[in-house]
């Protein structure tokens, strides 16, 4: 069975940092359509520090590394995103405590645990037009295919799930987060959190040479 080691998880996180930093302005512009326009800057401020600190942080186990990243998120990612992303990394870290490599079923458990933590922390559910509309079906897909898929197959599948979530939620009115405060104005705009997750996954496909053709306009800029 395939497994990912600490260095591979670290590389994926470093790549995600690059994605967030590169898209700082774009993610904030998307958030400005229905929210307060801070999403890109909030995320990039924290991920710039994570990228800088990544070479130095505790690598004794995957869990220890993720818990440290969780702390950096909580401390440096601004706005409502800090506790959300911090909780996600914390739960994934707790689920991989002491492990120096994780199998795909274990990775699916880590993501499932992160998603449950984010739901509990933010009080959002499926259909509220938050990043959970990408994360919940992604976690289910991972759980369903973890026993038989290769890492590349799993990455392609979850990227498609997140890509689809952009268009499936575009017409919804946001019920949680800042975008909910503008009500109807949030309809016909993509959720920046969903676009952020899908962009990270699409960039991972490119980075790892996984063939995937994105559908949503936000991934085809
Ligand atoms: Mg915002």
Automatic annotation (TrEMBL):
Every DhaL domain range: 7-206
InterPro entries (UniProt xref): DhaK_L_YcgS, DhaL_dom, DhaL_dom_sf, Dihydroxyacetone_Kinase
Cellular-component GO terms for this entry: cytosol
Gene this chain is encoded by: dhaL
Acyltransferase found in the keyword field: no
Pfam families assigned: Dak2
Keywords, sorted A to Z: Kinase, Transferase
Protein name listed in UniProt: Dihydroxyacetone kinase subunit L
Entry-linked NCBIfam families: dha_L_ycgS
Single GO molecular function: glycerone kinase activity
UniProt source species: Alteraurantiacibacter aestuarii
Domain of life from the UniProt record: Bacteria
Any one GO biological process: glycerol catabolic process
